[in-house]
Amino acid sequence: MILRNIAIRHGRKALAAPLRLSQFRTLSTETSTLEASIDNHNKQTNSLEATLNSLHLTRNFTPPQKKKARDPNATSVAKDFQAYNHIKRRTANLGSVIPKHYEPYQLIINPPAPKDITLELLMASQSHLGHATQLWNPANQRYIYGIRQGIHIISLEETAAHLRRCAKVVEGVAYHGGLILFVGTRAGQDSAVVKAASLAKGCHLFNRWVAGSITNGDQILAKCAIKAVDANDEVVAGYEDKLLSWKALKPDLVVCLNPLENYILLHECGLHNIPTIGVIDTDADPTWVTYPIPANDDSLRCIQLIAGVLGRAGEEGQRKRLEAAKEGIVTWLPPPDLGEPVTAESRARAAAEKAAAKKRGANSS
Question: Staple 313 to which of 1, 171, 265, 304, CB 3.0 to 4.6 Å?
Answer without folding.
Answer: 171
